[in-house]
Amino acid sequence: MFENLTERLGGALNRLRGRGRLTDDNVRESLREVRVALLEADVALPVVKVFIDRVRERAVGQDVLKSLTPGQELIRVVRDELTALMGESGEGLALNVQPPAVVLVAGLQGAGKTTTVAKLARWLKEQQKKKVMVASCDVYRPAAIDQLRTLASQVEVSFFPSQAGGAPVKIAEAAIIAARQGFFDVLILDTAGRLHIDEKMMDEVRRIHAASSPAETLFVVDSMAGQDAVNVAKVFDEVLPLTGVILTKADGDARGGAALSVRHVTGKPIKFIGSGEKSDAIEPFHPDRMASRILGMGDVLSLIEEAEKKVDKDKAAKLAKKISKGKGFDLEDFADQLREMRKMGGLGGMLDKLPGMAKMPQGVKSQMNDRELIRLEAIVNSMTPKERRFPAVIKGSRKRRIAAGSGTQVQDVNRLLKQFTQMQKMMKRMRKRGGMANLMRGMGGGMPPGL
Amino acid sequence: MLSRRSREPTDFSAEANSTHGTIWRLSQVRALTGKRLLQSDSGRKFQYMFGRQKPADAGNDASNKPASGLVSRLGAALGRTRGRLVQGLSRLLAGGAKIDDALLDQIEELLLSADVGVAVTTRIVEGIRSGVKKADGEAEDAVLRSLEKEMLAVLEPVATPLEIPRKLSRPFVVLVVGVNGTGKTTSIGKLAYRLRSEGRSVMLAAGDTFRAAAIEQLKSWGEQNQVDVVAQHTGADSASVVYDALHSATSSRIEVVIADTAGRLHTQIDLMEELKKVRRVVSKLDPEAPHEVLLVLDAGTGQNALAQAIQFHQAVGVSGLCITKLDGTAKGGVIFAIAESLGLPIRYIGVGEGVADLKEFDAHAFVQALLAG
Q1: How many CA atoms lie within 13 A of B349 on its CB side?
Q2: ipTM of the predicted structure?
Q3: Contact yes or no for B112 and A227 at CB 8 A
Q4: What digits encode the pLDDT tens for the residues A208-248?
Q5: Are residues A142 and B305, on separate chains, in Cβ contact within 8 Å?
Q6: Which domains can be identified in chain A, with CATH numbers?
Q7: Are A134 and A178 a contacting pair, CB within 8 Å?
Q8: Reported pTM
């Protein structure tokens, strides 16, 4: 197991230090490490080979920028190339056809088609203001139609009723007529999961496609898929003129190399990524983030975006002003920060997105749960406003009262006060030396003790 | 019996004679296993191969290795890998190539393409390197034998079937867990069929109270197998559903209770806690339950399957694995890594869409189907 590509490459790249240029010889060993990293990430072997060749071509002869070590330079090339291969970002759905625009969804069993149909319907309805109908052509799996019916009512879109005894092609045709008569903008057709080597079933989906002439034909693939993803995608792409790919279950810890394989073999853009159990957990695909993820570099960009979305900007600005003015950072601010942290999915959620954290032992991760945050907050909430502003007044009897009020022990109160003092010191240092960057350097990249 | 053909919608008349896909698959099986069939002396095995055997025979046949129907089914399932592997090897060996690094590299690539993973592949290839040096004889044979030996050494220790003792005073509880979309509910349906065929009484517990229509899906399997399904409403506490089922199974002297659970990603701590609760609650009725925690893994999953196995094992103590969807082109090579690091018994494999397409795992057959012609 490796922490991330950067660390993995460390040893091989140390030897490169001091050279001004990447050559065939000095990148060979490093590229072998890149190959292993990609394979561990489930990128299909043929794709890995092509990719490594491309990186070698681009990297060799390249001057190493002054600011980077040769290792970093190589990683930059790998990342850029990976991002480029992954295709364009933010491609929406091309639904500029005479309504109803049909979206056909196909894939293997258990890839997450039906869930994706519901998420997509909700996304189209809420983000694109479309009038959406969904229909299920899955007449095989028990209760598949019921599943879509339930999901459709959950996301409040229309459901075209179909029967388990019906013929899938007929269902598709009838659904289109119904969608046209009901003036729907979009009709999403769910299909049964099928094996790519099942010729009869592949023929069926081909006929559904022919009968519905979809504006978008989307291939749904599990982000945990292994080497076989490349074979599957190839056949689906041959049978159906795919227009895009949706990557599901990306909220797990798989590196998602299948994304690269599928993209490479079909040449079709990855349009969406499904990342959670809830019906709004679908987002447009960002190639750069996926590239970082495959390489084990964490999803720092997503974290930043999350922070922007969820952190109360006014409060943050107020705090920044307060600190820069030289006023003390008090316990009230501390509690605010704890609350913000919880809003961002707690420590666990943040850690998952940081580079190198994905492989952290589960034991450590589960200790970092939010119970501690809630406890700290409870302690602060049990203090009087005066105590929060001037923590120095908190002595023995106040501590006992606070502990009793928050259901904790005096030791917990002590620990919080100690942590707070440390944080206060850090804040002062930040003010003196200027900026967060300095602070981070001062900390050596580590977390403050106790947090 | 729920075969692909019987599931075909009836008003599909225009395509009634289009059984092309099925024929293709059968002929593939025939082509792949022809040699073995000639060697076998009875037509019974031929029948078995096409799934026409009486369900009651299933258990006996599966243990008839190596020329059992399992090999045939797996032969079809894993045919592509083997084809490529053998093709690759013979191409390399045709020119009288020596066992050099290039050949070993090729083997390495073939294993990697089967999702065996970097660590295990490296170890197996190193094993061949040292093993073959000592061996005499033809190069191809030596390599194949050595490869087979290395792979068997990993899988044989974990090929232990699930033994459900007869005449238990309390029901034998099988808790089925796994990430989303691996085929838990379908495998339960097949397992129920299998146990019914062995003459056992079975009850299903619809513990997946989260996914839409999961309960209906399980109920439909229950109807097919004439098995009672204990269910509550969607959104109910799955621990209480399983508790109810066990309670009712105990009073009506049912032998086996199979509990479904909602698919959950192993990284979601809250959902894993929920699973732990199911386990805790069940063990209150019977300290020995659940007797089996069956983790269902999709053969199409890559290296992440190892992470899944580790996390589920930590949370609820997995006691057996079921590998599904081996009828595609996915090889499920990641089970080598799982076998090496966790040593969890592999109980069943799913090799098709029919209700009888759940087979006991047989390491020899698995490896042979992967390697031999």
Answers
A1: 27
A2: 0.73
A3: yes
A4: 999 999 999 999 999 999 999 999 999 999 999 999 999 99
A5: no
A6: 3-86 (1.20.120.140), 101-295 (3.40.50.300), 303-442 (1.10.260.30)
A7: no
A8: 0.72
